[in-house]
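Researcher: First entry.
Model:
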Amino acid sequence: MRIYIFLVGLFFCLLTGMAQAATFNFNGVDVSSCTRSGAQYTCGNLSMADTDVIVIASGYGVTFNRSLTMTYNQGLRMSGSAALTATGNLDIKDINPSNLKVTGGSLTAEGGTFSMGAQEQTVTANISATTIKMGSNNVKVTGKISAKGPVEIASGSVINGPISGTIVNILAASTRIQGDITATTSLTIGSGSQVTGNLKSPTIDLKASGLLVTGDVEASNSLSIASGNGIKGNVDAGEVTLDSSNAYITGNAKVDHITLGWQGRVQQTITCKAYTPSNPCSCVTNNSGWAFNEPMGPKCGPGTQAAPHHFQIDHPGTALTCAPQTVTVTACADAACSARYTGGATVTVSPGGTATQIDSSGVATASVRQYTVGTATLGLTSVPGATDALVCKRSSDNSNSCDMAFAATGLMLTPTNHISGTQPSFGISAVQASGDQQACVPLFANKNKDLTLACGYSNPASGTLPVFIKGTDAFIALAANNSSACSALGKSVNLAFDDKGVAKVTMSYADVGKVNLKATYTGSSASGDTGLSMTGSADVIVVPAAFSAVAIANPQRAGAPVTVSMSALNSAGAVTPNFGNEKPSETALPTLASLVRPTTIEIGNPAKPDIQGGVVFKNGSVASSDMNWPEVGTITIAFKLANRNGYLEANTAVPTLPKPSRVSEEVQFIPHHFITELIKDKEADQPKVTDGIARPCAAPLTCVNDGEKGRYAYSGQAIGVRVTARALGGATTQNYDELNPGVLAPVLLEGLDAATGKISFPPSTPDGSSRLTDGSKAQTTVTGVAPAKFTLGIARTMVAYRFPGKAGVPVTVAPTDVLLRASSTYPGGAVVSSSSALIQNEARMTVLSGQWQVAHGYGSELLPVRLAVQVQYWNGTKWITNLLDSISAFNKSQVVFVNCKKTLDCSKLAADDLAYTVVQGALPQAYRLTLLAPGAGKAGRVDVSVGNHPYLGSTVGVVVFGILRSGPVIYLREMY
């Protein structure tokens, strides 16, 4: 009979082994159980075996009139424009990644849920469904993802394409998305994610931390930006919150209301939708630590208008009837003209002007012309029209007058934009109108004349240094003395006019900015031209020659503002004190010049984000900085003039002028701080051992606050701990890696009292037994985290907190609240730590003194004896069963037999080879500790304990086998 059964089983196995996987090819041929109409297949009852494969060729579509769920050993292959549709659910999440070859096409669950990602799967296809779930492993999708309902994407996924749905949830952490995300109800993006694309949803929540969105964000109801997160783009939203600390928006923000947490910043303009010119920041709650009037503080103004707020004409105040006069026209975005309108405009300035185009720079040069002597009031027409009246700036007297005096005779000055501290020459011509007023002819020829020359400040509107002028004599300051500011009174300068009526003049200005030069001539009887009075003026832009060497201290902390020492210099190397005082102010834009360490040899693809934030100049030098780099390593930083048209647009007229730049010396960046975390159940890096995590608390046990319900572990129990190196704001510094030793310092790990942060409880003992250990039976001391454990900024280790006392012996120590602190000390004394007074960066848990409680027992030497075993902890007054524990376990090798009496031999005693795991603190009755029968003639007593357990001590249970007292003994056993 047994042989027959064996042969039948063998025959069955042979038949099973001979079965082959079927391949359903949808490529224009008929397929069983499916109908075909041209290139479209419809399948109703297609039956698939465990190893069958679906192959859909490009140009063909397959529709299942039901749900389709594919299993691990099944396969799916698609390419080109292939299409797979299920009228119910479409579930491919369990397919082995090696069996999933989707390189093009579309996947559709018309009436149900599309699921993928139980494995680390990759597809290239457009995906659509009612509900889309991608997880719990990271997935990679290239294509459009659209749902009629919710979308959920697992952490660590890579999506190259747009995403849309009602509720879109991108789980933490480190997902990469290239594409716009649109959610009709709400959008949540988890920490560490990077999105390149625009976001649109009524409610958007960007979770802490290290999250970056490169694109514009629209949230009609609310937008929450957690600490350390950033938006590189513009924001249009209702209620906006930038949490503490270091949340930022690089563009403009148009909002109903905005709250700026500590060091929260909108780098451009905040526009209140209920904009009030008298109180432009009425919708701003400013808790950033920077005042409204500080460079790093919030700036408020009107939003991007359909037209300029007003136009501003900068003019010299005088002109000739014989020549056009150049003026500068600026399209202003606000009343103070602190920002320019960039939407473009066409303007015509009167009198006599022609149409002039203003591009996105917001500024252009135009001209006016009048052929008759007299005063004209400048005017302007534009498309689009401005919302407010024209404003004029007249440099001849630094007034707001739009009046310009046209004369038949006058002085023409032709200075050119140049580098500060140099000595360029320019011409001054004395001219008069020809008979027909169409041209200017020389008035002085081959004569020396004394002219009064004066200087003034246009932008900035004030200054401290004078302009020096040289005519036929030595240089002379157009000021009271050589070190005072420009004077409107000016100085008399002798000039030699040549045969063309042009006098050569040399100027020198040691500062920067737009300065006005004015020349005046008054005739006299001595010169034979009594009654002749001429004047003329011109603006000239003087630009910095260079930036000074950049001074940045080492090391700097990732993500933290970097203090920068740098100045704008003239050609002689002196600081130009007006740089940064302009309106709008000029500055230097910092960018990443080079990543010195880690090299690509050390780390194949190191993180190298660009520099974030910027610097603000005042009086020629950097006055403040929120510049930061959110990574670790050694870099150089380039500082380039931010104005692409050159300093004050000087390069528009003189393209060859330099645009100052400077590269810093090497700067080392180290982590801003560490965080320590307890690894939790079902997390991707959960330890493989079942007792390797700290367990959630519940009544009657009260645990230290960890932001949830608290967690506990036993003294000496090794649990999974995650240590992460982070930038300010919470982004993980991925270059903090064992392959980049230059940024690693020894990481000390300490177990401290959660309330005080000190090694105060339990007290130190002479044998030093109060310490962190590896949780092994030997309880080997652990002092830190090895550098080799860090990968992409994260280290995972097993560590135990051990109470004082002898290993394996229960100790009566009450539940103790403990925190785990990581710290490193770099050469020079810089300390990186997980300690923070503002944010809970440190893992917290309650440590219990635990033991196995082994009951006494007795029985026949011919039968096994079963013992009740509980896991207990000391609550401060007594040992109680831990009803929360359904994890602790032991095996037969950890059961110890000692002190055998009578005929018992301890070396021969053994426990049954069962899985001894407690349920609610006790071994179930069916799985109690079972001691195998010693056998006939083996009677006596023995002490039994779970003495070889690595971290739980044990009481001793006394077990009696056989008859040890006179008289008959009846053993009663209940069998389970």
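Researcher: Second entry.
Model:
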Amino acid sequence: MTHNPFSRSLRARLVGATLSTTAIALAALVFLVALRSGQTLSEQAQEISHWSETQLSGRLLSDAKLAAARLQMQREDVERRFATIAKRWDVSTAVFSGNTVAASELMRPALALADLDGVIAFDQNLRALTADRVEADLLAANTAIGRTPLAAALRAIIARNDRERSTGFMMSLRWDGTVAGALAANETGSFVDVFGQPLFDEFGEVIGGLVGYRMLRPREEILTAFNALSGRDVFILAGSRLLSSAGAEMPDATLGVASTSGLQAIVGTEKVARCIPAAQETRLCVAAPLQELEQIKNKVVGIGEASSRSLLTTLCVVAGLTLCLVAIVLLFLSSHITRPLVRITRTVAEVARGNWHVTVPDVRREDEVGDIARAVVVLEHSLAERDQLRDDVFAKNQILTEREAQLQEQNERFDAALNNMSQGLCMYGANGHLKVSNEQFLHIYGIDAEALAPALTHSDVWFLAGLGHLPVRGRGGAQGRVTTATLADGRHIEITVQAMADGGWVETHEDVTTSVIAQARITHLATHDALTGLPNRALLTERLGEAFSEYVEGGRAAAVICIDLDDFKGVNDTLGHPAGDDLLRQVGARLTALSSPGKTVARLGGDEFAIVLSGSDLSDGALRFAEEALTQLRRPFFIADQFVSADASLGIAVSAETDSDGEDLLRRADLALYVAKAEGGRRVRAFEPEMEERQHHRRWIERELRIAIANGQIELHYQPLFALATNTVTGFEALARWRHPERGMISPGEFVPVAEATGLIDALGVFVLRTACAAAMSWPGSLRVAVNISPIQFRDGNIHRIVEEVLQETRLPSQRLELEITESVILSQDQATYQMLTELRRLGVRFSMDDFGTGYSSLSSLNSFRFDKIKLDQSFVRNLLDRDEAAAIVHVVAELGRSLKITTTAEGVETEEQLTRLRASGFSEVQGYLLSRPIPAAEVAGFIISQSHLSAAA
């Protein structure tokens, strides 16, 4: 395409003029910026000098603070080491032994490790006891200590008297004759750091104080190390007097007047310093050479000059880039006029070659170029419509051909789908004759293809399929009917009938044998126990409901027997859970074999079973059946290659008019079982109305006890224990008493078992423990308090933490607390229980075995755990005078206590004769109504004082 030379020349002149004007303007701008930058650097010289001085002052201030911090860290390190010396037991012993030479020899190596110059010890009255030097003037120290601040500081730390939270003191003092005399020191110096710590005896009581001191060195190692690390000279001044320094040698350090930035010139040197105040009107200073100030100033000036050069370079680069950008924009604008015409020309050429779908540019322009573009668009549309008519005729012919092929394919697919269905299919016309069937139908019923002709009626087809015994369904336009047929070979066939619009219908036949069997299995699993195969609680409830309905309608009576295996946990623990599962299966088998077809044996869960009976005379029959069941269960079981004995508790309930449904009957049987278990198990108990009354009373006790614990209705009475050797009180046993607002005092034997069964024993036990420990702290002297701990309280695994928290809260010494536990805690063979007992023993708590002699393993318990005391059960004391066996046991227990060096206590002493026999047998302690009944908490202190007066009079 030929271009216009005139257009090209005009475009060149326009671009050249614009670029020349822009270049001149940019050059003038760069010149002005360079001129102003030079003037700015000259004006800022004074500010740079001041800024440089401020920067150096800030650096020196930071170094001074860091040096001061290191000095403080050194003091704190010396204080910690000194505190370690003071807490050593051998130091306290040596100081208060009176042996000055031994104390001096013991403390001198420790002082060297702690970097101390000397040490002196004082008693509680601030009398000097000993020092690190044998020749120290202790009398002068006694005289001088009162004239120094050390006296008040020592009295303060001695007065705290708390070994666990003991604190000392640290102070810096000017060194003079008074301070030197108070410390019995012979050193010379200017300043000294003094440290103080309390001294305690082996019982944790404060007995005096220990004072150490360290003189300020002319060359402190910590400052020398700081000088080596930072390169700064460091010195400490008192006025103009140099006390200590590190770095360059300075015989004296006279400082000039401080500048606005805090810098001071050091007279006679080329250095400046920055000082901060220190202890006792001293100053800590850090110095730097004046050359460092000049280096900072030159560095800032160099940065400014480099910045100016960089600015000028950037301006030059930006000017060049701006010229290039202007040139590009000018070229773009100049070419924007001719390019649209070129595009239209190319589009017309494409249309001429037969491309009628090319996009026409610039159709939205409002000038002549836009008119040309729109005319080309009209031409394209006319040519495109002609071609579209031709293409439509061709497309319709193609569609007819494709539809014919699709119809053929659909027929083939229908045949394939019909013969590959998982269900058998038969289609019948309105006249009841077979129209279509598939291969799966023939396979399900085993029919030959030749035998199934299209003209057969519905009855004929069902006869061939072996369904002739079923009523004919689906005929006459039945809608969505489903029938399940059972064939002679046991298979289950589901037949679905669906009506068609023309009066015919379609039948589908599906073999659902697997689904029917699976559903039956699911139903069995939902209503039977997976382990034993017996009915579960759900099926038992259903059968019980049926039996109770017969009873309500005037039929036979119903009864329920609840069974719980005794000591099933022991089988699991000793032989393992597989053996326990085997035992449950054999128990279920024996109960099933014992039961007639009309009875239902079910497993309720765990080791609990239930049997539902029905009959005309169940009052005696149910009891006989239960006793026979107990007899059968007592026969040995062969489990894990050995014979295992088992026993059970049984509860019986027979239907009565008071029952509203089967659940009431089951509840009464379960209540009878609970009573059988409570009476020791291994027996049969029939339900009695009194059981329900006792159950209601037990629930009342539980509800009221919960309120009593929350509202503080529980009181503690304390029964004293007397030492037979001295006839003095050795301690008290805390006994819970419940004062109900309506019923008055309720016996512990009535509410403690309920608390243990319901879990309230945890809250009750914590209340008793906390109250007893707090009360013991208010008693005169250091008598012990004994608190009973239930085995249930070991269940949660935190009894040791509770005891530790109570001791910390009440501040009762652990050796004054005695925990009374029964041998059942030891016999549990639980590792967690042993761990808790070990933790309690670590706290220093004493242990007493309560009710000794009533269990079957008391001696084994003594061998398993170390007890401090054994308490003989009061049943032996009660029969002491009447039965020779009881007297022999009393004597044996006393001898056992002497042999094992364990305190022996007899409880329940009520007569003088019993007391005399126990004293003769050699018992250590006694308690009982003869000596004192349990005393209310408010009267214990008076009782202790009166007993102490009686002992003094005796």
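Model: Note on the second entry: The longest strand covers residues 728-740.
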